[in-house]
Amino acid sequence: MASRRDIYQSYQFTVQRVVSGLVLRETDPAQVPLRRLGGTMFASIMVAVIALAITGVIGVINPGGNKTWKSEGKVIVEEDTGAQFVWLKNPETGEFLLHPVLNLASGALLVGTSQIVEVSHASLEGAPRGPRLGIPDAPDSIPPTDDFLTGPWTLCSLPAQTQSGELVPSTALVVGRERSSGIPIDDSIAVVNDIEAGAVYLVWNGHRFLAADPTAVLTGLGLRDVPQIEAGTAMLTALPDGGTLAPSAPAGRGQPSSTASGLLVGQIVMTSSGSDASSYYLVLDEGLQAISEVQALITLADPTLSTAYPGAAIEAIEIPAAQANQLPHDQLGDPQFSDPPRVPPAPALVQGKTSTICASFSSGTAEIDIAVEAQVEGADTATATPQRTQNGAVLADQVLTPSGSAALVRSVMSPTAEEGPLYLVTDEGRKWAIPDDEALQSLGLTSVEPVLMPASLVARIPEGSALDKKAAGTPS
Fold it and tell me: What one-character DSSP code corresponds to residue 458?
């Protein structure tokens, strides 16, 4: 009779044959199934143990980790925390110290490059530390050069709702985008009321013209019943100044002219010659001064002009061209780009005082695209500004540079100018002056072509501290 031992061995033998048949398709193989797998597993474990032992020995010999960052001359970023450092030589002791820096721009200015090297915390252990350095408000991110914007800058006056529900104008500047909608005013004219300064302007041909006497100016040009767009000072001061529109009031108005018999100083005369447009003149004591039709109409609308027309209708007096030519007179010169219109323009298609107005500025050109009932994408989500500088200069209420992008801009006094202060504008909605070529190179921006924008527009952006190497090296 079989013992329990015999029965158990018989069972093991049977199971072994079944496994062999399933795995090797042979019930009586020369080798035991899975023997190779066990050997492979044992070998792998031994390799892992040896690798760990080697790593441990290296850790004992060189516990500080990677030290190549000391010779790379880049901004050092700690992988675990994102903290930024620079490895600088102390000019007094000659010792190298690891300085924490407040932001990437400060680090770049100190080491001469915006490139970074990421290292572990262990790699920085044991390095002698120096004081924290940097410009407190400098940018902490500088986008790649491919992400710098070269498109138009658009400034808009948009209605914004106050906590009380009142609609007031708000000025938004969007960098790198042209307007997304609107009706171009082209050759027409818009009446804009600066509610902050209490002044009325006419906007025409990309310029603003102050109406020094709004009643005379609007009445003379037939604009009294035209809706006035309410805007802020930041919107209007960004436009090039075309000068002032006001009635002409020469000295001695109402007195007989010494040279123009029968005419009084301050009167308006006109001549016509066939199909040509009429010529207008202001009567002076010494002769006739050529003026535009617009200036003539504004002057005739001056309620104080009655002194020059005693007992007579206030209107232009028509005289023969030959008579005008016999009197001392001048001629209107060729119109300049910044001059006011010479003939009354048609009013722009404005719906009401809360209508929007936008001006798009392109790099290096005097042409400004102005449109009413206009919008620009992102203006309503732009970053709020302090609205005024510490010196009282007016800023745009909001500034938007699309996220992850920036602009390099040169602030110029005229469209033909090529020199002027250089600024970095980031998606923080602020600008920083770049004082010299060394700073430009350190920030990695030498390959970026700056856009040229009017100084009056660039001044609407809040300004941070200049990106200066000396300032970056100041302990904070």
Answer: H
Report phi then psi at 308, rounded to 5. -90, -5
Helix, strand, coil fractions of the chain, as percent rounded to 5: 25, 30, 50
370/142 Cα distance (integer angstroms): 32
Query: What's the pLDDT score for residue 36?
Result: 58
Please state, in angstroms and rounded to a whole number, the distance separating the CA atoms of residues 284 and 50. Answer: 107
Q: In the predicted model, what is the mean pLDDT of the chain?
A: 89
In Å, how far are 135, 147, 155 from 176, measured between CA atoms? 27, 11, 11
Cα(371)–Cα(352) distance, integer angstroms? 14
pLDDT digits (tens, 9 = 90+) for 225-272: 999 999 999 999 999 999 999 999 999 999 999 999 899 999 999 998
Backbone angles phi, psi at 300, to 5 degrees: -65, -20
- Homologous superfamily of the 68-123 domain (CATH): Type VII secretion system EccB, repeat 1 domain (3.30.2390.20)
CATH superfamily of 243-330: Type VII secretion system EccB, repeat 3 domain (2.40.50.910)
Selected residue with higher pLDDT from 182 and 43: 182
Cβ distance 202 to 217 under 8 Å?
yes
Check: pTM over 0.85? Answer yes or no. no
